[in-house]
Amino acid sequence: MIKQKQFDKTLIRERIAKRAEQEIVSGSYVNLGIGMPTMVANYIQTGKEVVLQSENGLLGIGRFPYEQEVDPDLINAGKETVTAITGASYFSSAESFAMIRGGHIDLAILGGMEVSEKGDLANWMIPGKMIKGMGGAMDLVHGAKKIVVIMDHVNKQGEAKILKSCTLPLTGKNVVNRIITDRAVIDVEDKGLVLVEVAEGFSIEEIMESTEAALHVSESIQIGTY
Amino acid sequence: MIKQKQFDKTLIRERIAKRAEQEIVSGSYVNLGIGMPTMVANYIQTGKEVVLQSENGLLGIGRFPYEQEVDPDLINAGKETVTAITGASYFSSAESFAMIRGGHIDLAILGGMEVSEKGDLANWMIPGKMIKGMGGAMDLVHGAKKIVVIMDHVNKQGEAKILKSCTLPLTGKNVVNRIITDRAVIDVEDKGLVLVEVAEGFSIEEIMESTEAALHVSESIQIGTY
Amino acid sequence: MKQIYTSFHEVVKDVTDGSTLMVGGFGLVGIPENLILALRDSGVKHLTVISNNCGVDDWGLGLLLQNKQIDKMIGSYVGENKEFEHQVLSGELEVELVPQGTLAERIRAGGAGIPAFYTPAGVGTPIAEGIEVRTFNNKEYLLQTALKADYSLVRAAVGDTQGNLIYNKTAQNFNPIIAAAGNVTIAEVERLVEPGDLHPAQIHTPGIYVQRLIDGKQEKRIEKLTLTQLA
Amino acid sequence: MKQIYTSFHEVVKDVTDGSTLMVGGFGLVGIPENLILALRDSGVKHLTVISNNCGVDDWGLGLLLQNKQIDKMIGSYVGENKEFEHQVLSGELEVELVPQGTLAERIRAGGAGIPAFYTPAGVGTPIAEGIEVRTFNNKEYLLQTALKADYSLVRAAVGDTQGNLIYNKTAQNFNPIIAAAGNVTIAEVERLVEPGDLHPAQIHTPGIYVQRLIDGKQEKRIEKLTLTQLA
């Protein structure tokens, strides 16, 4: 707990977003979920060719507009005003989800509330709280070729979010490929969860302690990579 | 049989096509099948606003092109070079059949080999002969709001083509709304086939004799209408 | 061939209590603003509304909520609206939440004459309750059925008097599939032009899907203005 | 990002014996002429070909038939080809005939991640043999499954180097859905341009669906020249 306090919230989010950016291969098509995942776009390294898809019907999201460029008809899935890159295309929501469901998106980076050791993801509702809806998340988890979930390693109460089984209603079963938190990078494999990277300032033991699910430690584990 | 000889084949086709044209309501969207149905377009009365759909992805078929207008990329479903009317649109085959299947076409006029008294249609294959394929016919019979079949009343051997049950493999079951032949106009209703018009030169008895299926005679039957 | 209206009041006048409406838009982008205002003014009640979102408290479909004109809402995300939450908790408003891609495909199916299809979205989640699960190639899918509407309300940037529509940028979203899935489709266009003014290969919604057209100025409220600051 | 080729020989070189190909076009309109010629020259065999038609004796897919490169053909109408008839009767060629709208929808489903859907086409006909029939709202429908391909070959009028494609008039036909249903999609374009040269709202096939591009001059044979005579 002490270590977490060393970072303020913004810095933690930045650390996660920067590490998540490394998942993006040049030449790929990527969908970034609403919230922290959207921030990943800010850290895309120059020289990487990446096309960002927005499920409201845009392939090729650009930067936020300058004030004089704002078009109210041009937003991303988070309803933020954006621009389109050169070579972009617009299409309907049916075409957009055909693209997603059909496996044409190389990578989706999504937020998470809980992930289980089988790769189940819960990120859309908390029983008892107002249900806002799942938006496109349930389609994305089954469509994109690779699903990376980014989230805090533990919740505000310090409790594990990587669990044996999710306690919250699921977004998708057995859909997550990799989890990136402020503390570690964990892959979902057939044998279970595999710890592949540990963030600066944490030890393997600390990761184990703050993870409810069983963790295999990768033979090629790297410590302090981010 | 004698009466049929009075017409040559072209005149018979023209008679049928002209009568079929009367089925077209101004302001409607119509799909004309390949062959004789395509000829119906030649007789559309001036003042009628009709938009012809072509299942290869064109809404708004125009006349055949003048020689200098020919575009090899612009054909109808019969693969004939055509033009497009002002206000036309092009789209994919998936969209074209979404339009057809979704019930947006008001009327389809199709050719027929056999029609049964339940409104079954056979118009795509003759066992033992080379099977060319059904093209769009099986979709059209379920999609258009009204299906009119146009054909000769009897085959080359003088045998009935309007039957108790079709002998040929079906294109669709219980799909035909109206049959127009060189001799008569017959509606398919819940109670069976109803003779509503008799062409010039034929009597009700002659129609009955050359039709295998049972025919109810409409109370408002008209004789010699075309 | 198409009915061209000049009064928003007139164009929605026959929408009766208990109708099912589909309404285009994603957030506040591409919503038929004036048609929604006219429905609010008409006071029509007991509506079932199918739309990705439900507006905000004081704009878009939120206006119909405020006025308690909606009995049931089918959408994928309804989080921007306090009145919505209030009516759900009080039991006045029934909600059916559908994954966004499933919603889009169910609407497309409605317009395309496909009664049902299978999709992976929602397998193993609460939305799969009571829904048929079927395996194809060792993967599980849910059976989902088509959605249709009595009236579809859409907004386009340009429309011609034959009903052909072109949408602007991401204001396309649900509009083309909604246009095809309504028994009566009403298009609110920012600019009404003559046939021939639109290029036939650039049309997003062929005229066959549209029964009524009306042009109207758009306010186009921005939900979240995000800017790049000049350095 | 995309592989831009200059040799038709090279662009189809990795198509191996036994591959499943989808080929765009309706009749001879919109067919990838040069890709087909290159496949003929490559001599690749035992192909399964999914295409609405199968060319004519001496052009389009007819060239691959002549060369006995096709083992199985899935299409809706194959009537313009004598060699086709000969090979079917001799048992050299297997044929699966599919209603045209069902073919289009199965291909769309393949690209859109829909494993199966229901359609009315073919109920009560020979093509319903062995296919599940199911009733929705008192009407019968057939279950139809998605089609995918190892390689999809399409032709567009214009393409940019990001893979975005625009088709000309009715040469669009099956091309956009086929582009989306291939594991590797190869687009033959009449004109290759730079990103930004195509308007984002006019693109028929977004670049995400296309892996390889090559430009080539088209012969565009006309199957049935029908003219209006000047009076």
TrEMBL record, chains C, D:
InterPro entries: 3-oxoacid_CoA-transf_A, CoA_trans_fam_I, CoA_transf_BS, NagB/RpiA_transferase-like. GO terms for molecular function: CoA-transferase activity. The keyword Transferase applies. Keywords: Transferase. It comes from the Bacteria. Pfam families: CoA_trans. Belongs to the 3-oxoacid CoA-transferase subunit A family. This is Succinyl-CoA--3-ketoacid-CoA transferase.
